[in-house]
Amino acid sequence: MASVLDCAQSSSGPKVDAARYLTQLKRVCFSFLTHIRVATRQIPYAGLTTWNNNERMGLTMKRISTVLALSTAIATVAGGAAYAQSAGDWTLGIGLGYLNPKSDNGTVGGAAATIDSDVRPIFTAEYFVWDNIGIELLAATQFKHEISLDGNAAATTKHLPPTLSINYHFDTGSKWSPYAGIGLNYTAFSDEKLIGSNTSIELDDSWGVAVQAGLDYQISEKGAVRLNVRWFDIDTDVTIGGNAAGTAEIDPILVGMSYVHKF
């Protein structure tokens, strides 16, 4: 860290060191993934043998805040040309998202439900209404999930997770630009099917809060690589054969890696 600080404070100005930036980016990525994994595990913590949703959300937000603080610190000392956003700017992003539902997904039909993960293309469009403050729309191709009951594959479903957020991008005066945001998610389920049965199954669409933190690294005058993590509050009422069967609590984490272009 001292060598990075020395570089940032050098009288000759910041020097671009590709190897150093790559090392820092790897460290940030590792920190994101480590904190996400720990935050979503359902393990005893501080004397708790089970977590409720508020406890899980609280720890997840704590982990995200830690990662955001780390990202901001790295960005501040890394130096390089500034990657700033001004009022009236647009950005478009395209990448991949790994959607990982929480480990305990509620009770459906009297059985413990679990929902598997999926990876799909993700897209973002953001308009900056003020300097550093943008309104962002997240879209994706349909995520597909298998639903297991008491450990046995029972059903499949697809969903779309459009999310509208307001983001604040921190101006660090460097190639690194951390940001955080909060918004509203709408999840639309489709193609619900019971495995090995013609009985109908339906998952209600869901509205919920979404929060995120991320880090952009400028690679050209208009382009940046983005790593971010989002948490969605997604709960859906399940109906099987026309009868209420319970509520599936999905509450997933979405880890995304994208290319973002500024217009």
UniProtKB/TrEMBL annotation:
Gene3D superfamilies reported in the protein's UniProt record: 2.40.160.20
Entry-linked InterPro entries: OMP/PagP_B-barrel (IPR011250), OMPW (IPR005618)
One Gene Ontology cellular component: outer membrane
Matching SUPFAM superfamilies: OMPA-like (SSF56925)
Domain of life the protein comes from: Bacteria
GO biological process: transmembrane transport
Membership in a protein family: Belongs to the OmpW/AlkL family.
Protein name: Outer membrane protein W
Underlying gene: ompW
